[in-house]
Amino acid sequence: MGNPIEEGGVNVSIKNHIASIEFHHPLSNSLPRKVLQELAKTITEMGNNDEVTVIILKSAGQRAFCAGASFDELISIDNLETGKIFFSGFANVINAARKCPKIIIGRVQGKAVGGGVGMASAVDYCMATKFASVKLSELAVGIGPFVVGPAVERKIGTSAMSQLSINATEWQTAQWAKEKGLYTEVFETVEEMDEAIDKLTTTLSKSNPEAMQMLKKVFWEGTEHWDSLLIERMIKKQYKKLLSLIHISEPTRPERMSYCVLWVKKKGGGGGGGGGGGG
């Protein structure tokens, strides 16, 4: 495998007015900056494409949905400007999904960590399998989920958001996520989930685009300031910690963050690694 920061990508296909956007990375679909940039750009493009009525957002593979921000890129940060760009990646994706005029259906087949939880929160309707456990891991590496926080809190509420943020090393089940409102439906198998997604998106693809666009605006009413809010949170809340990460020694930095990859070694459904939260 080459440089993990340079790997991964985004694929898109359109069929019967349904756009499928799929991101991928060999390290459990963790997302380095270049993939986040491509993902935000693709969501915006599909939102502006007159041939598209509804969008499916998904990741490749059968296990992890998204391991959060790239661990390799996180520990490679060596200056504030790089850090700002790194933490703004998920903000740009969340804002692209928020402003997209098309309904976005999320497909979560496995575990979601940090920014992956933010991604699931940014879609308009999210389906998952029973293996799609969630965790906001940021506090365990000494930062906080400030960038993805507004999207997660909007979807599951302050109490559940607090639980995820504070208990940063523990997984919450897919059923827990459904009860809190992150997932709308949880399925036993990927096949059952895909069948339900196909049925819903087929119905939506034949629905009135103008009505769905108006619904989307209603869903996201009150978030118009997020273009600035997510970046401001990142700058105000993360920069002091980022300074400490930059100035600690190289042997110490990975040691402090080593928890991020511990779950790679664990056996069980939906495992994967490579993520460093999401900001």
Summed up:
By secondary structure, the protein is an alpha/beta fold.
Describe the structure.
46% of the residues lie in helices and 14% in strands. It is α/β, with parallel strands linked by helices and 279 residues long. The strands form two sheets. The protein has a six-stranded mixed β-sheet with strand order 1-2-3-4-6-8, sandwiched between helices. Helix 1 (33-47) links the parallel strand 2 (18-24) and strand 3 (54-59). Helix 1 (33-47) runs parallel beside helix 3 (80-99) and helix 3 runs parallel beside helix 4 (115-122). The two termini are 26 Å apart. The model is unreliable at 246-273 (pLDDT under 50).
List keywords for this structure.
single chain; about 280 residues; six-stranded mixed sheet; two-stranded parallel ribbon
Topology:
Layout (H helix, E strand, L loop, with lengths): L8 E7 L2 E7 L8 H15 L6 E6 L11 H6 L3 H20 L3 E6 L3 E2 L1 H8 L2 E5 L4 E2 L13 H8 L1 H9 L7 H7 L4 E3 L2 H16 L3 H11 L6 H22 L4 H6 L22
Parallel strand pairs: 2-3, 3-4, 4-6, 5-7, 6-8
Antiparallel strand pairs: 1-2
The tally of helices reads 11
Main sheet specs: 6 strands, mixed
**Strand runs, count:** 8
Silhouette: globular
Q: Please list the strands of the largest sheet in the order they lie side by side.
A: 1-2-3-4-6-8
Percentage of β-strand residues: 5-15%
CA-based gyration radius: 18 Å
First-to-last CA distance? 26 Å
